[in-house]
Amino acid sequence: MKLKFNKGVSNVVGVMIILMVLVAVAGIVFAVTYNIVTKSTEESGACFDVLDKVSIDPMYTCYIPPSYGNEKLNLFISVGNIEIEGILVSLSGNKITETFEILKTGTTIDYLENNAEVYPPEKNSGLVYQIMLFSFSGPSTNTRVPDKIEIAPIINGQQCGVSDRILEIPECD
What we know:
This protein has one helix at 11-45, and strands at 54-56, 62-64, 72-79, 86-92, 97-103, 107-108, 117-118, 125-132, 148-155, 158-159, 164-166. It is rod-shaped. The model is unreliable at 138-142 (pLDDT under 50). It is of the alpha+beta class. The strands form three sheets. Strands 4, 5, 9, 10 and 11 form a five-stranded antiparallel sheet that branches. Strands 1, 2, 3 and 8 form a four-stranded antiparallel sheet that branches. Strands 6-7 form a two-stranded antiparallel sheet.
């Protein structure tokens, strides 16, 4: 007695099985990458349209020398058509490096005028912050005046990149 086992899978059925496996693998790869890309896009999307909407106004940002009383820095920040949760402000120079956040929930900063609670500007508005430079360490000369001011908005709990900077701070008229 001779047994025949010549029966196998036809070419058509074999191709169909391979195609189904490929579609299943492609679906898994798509689902994983879609979730990763969507999450990354949502996180970065909050900061996508910020660049020109949170800025330092150079016309009203200036240094008040000690001859007028205390050394101060007027910093005018304006916010365009965008909702922000806060602003990160960085002052840096020869004898000064200070960074602070101005949050929508209210922030008290020791070296701001009157030690009052401050808030970031609302949508489509601007505010002047008067920073007391004598509070910073260093000799009482204009070396405490920062060479650079940078601001970065905080949106949806995420700090965005620097949206504006000023490299020369003139003396107030």
